[in-house]
Structures are given as structure tokens and as C-alpha cells.
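Re: the 251-residue chain
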Amino acid sequence: MTLGLIGKKIGMTRRFYENGQSVPVTVLHVEPGKVVDVITKEKRGYSAVLVGFGHIKNSKVTKQMKGVFAKKSLEPKKILKEFRVEKDSDLKLGSDIDLNIFKDINFVDVRSKTIGRGFAGVMKRHNFAGLRATHGVSVSHRSHGSTGQRQDPGRVFKGKKMAGHMGDKFRTVERLEIIETDLENNLLFVKGSVPGAKNSVVEINKAVKERNKRTMKDTIQAFKDDLAEGLKEKSNKKDAKPAAAPAAEKK
């Protein structure tokens, strides 16, 4: 694992490009983090960096955490996240971490909690078709049907798709492309959707799995190159066209 960021989901919008393509993007607001502690192998057996994000009032901080931040001469942070690193990091206590860590990265993994849907039935939760709506079915059109077997095995298998609590779980969307980075306003634009409702907390990390796919920057650059090459060929054909012969003089 490498260093990551904690941000907030603002919402979704679109980006329009020169080739006429429209790309849906999710806007994430990422505040710079502060290094609260540097963990070494000698201290705990592994290398990691504890980073704090967000502002919190002193009245909402426990006495224990007030002592921790006071000992390090840092302002209290709302969220503390530990990122493991392969080797001892060069970061020091109090260093800032911002969007520059994704400067040379094209794809990220975003983790967040999905929207809670409460207690849902099988048709909404698992996309069941339901029972027949004709003769023989009485007030059980949206039920899931039988759940188990007879005396053998005499129980319901674990993982059976049934009605229950839907959503409100942490999910990770892998390999989302970074479309744009606004360092001035601390905004990150990623291609596609991100789990969670607006203003929900998201965790952003470098993509673990490699993705050999052409990015939008490469697509736009290829479009410009093809356009320039087409104009060049058109100009060459125009120059190579023979001039019209002069009209014969009238006697």
C-alpha cells in the first residue's frame, strides 16, 4: 500500500472533449492531510504513516486525543488514517500531503460506504423476478419462494439470498481514471461513479491492479494527431493538383 488521501464526494458532472465525447465524472474534494506519526519497523514491526484529515472543534475531541495532538504540537484532526509503506518514509512529523501524490498516476481505487436502503425485499435487493401474478398465487407475488430443503440437510445454507438489510457497506471501485486535478480548489475529477451519497467520506489510493487502457489524454492526443495529419494530406493534394490550362484566344 502507498500513501492515499481522504476526501468528500461532492457530486457528478460531465466533461466534454474536442472529439465530441462526453465523459461522466465524479468530483471529490480532498483537503491536504497532515502527518501525525511515522511508524517504523523497529517501533512496531512494519513501516507506515499516520495521516490526519479534516478540522474538528476542540470541544469534540476526547481528553486522550487532546493529549496526543498536544504532545506532537499539532491541531486536532477529524479523521486519522494509517497507510502502510514498503520502506521507511521520508516524510516527517507535520508534513503536508495533498493531491501532488497523484501527479504521475492515471488510475486510482476509491473506497466508500454505499447508500443505505434499509430493509429490502429480494426483488429489490437481489433482482428476483418474483412469483407468477396469475392463478394459484395468493398475496405472495414478491416473495422469494422456498428457502431450504426437506429433513436432509434440514437447514438453510449460509449466504442464501433473502430479504434483509441493503446497502450501508464499504465498497471499493477499482481503476478509476483521473480526468482532471484542480490543485487550487483541492478538487479531483475521476471518470465514472463512486459509492456513497453526496458529502460522504471517500478513501483514495493508487490503483493496485494495472490497467493497460488508453486514457482520455491519449485519446484526445490521437484525435488531434489524426486531425492534423488529415489537414496535411488535404493540403498536399491541393498543391499537387495541376493548374487549369489557359483558354484559347478568340480570333
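The radius of gyration is 29 Å.
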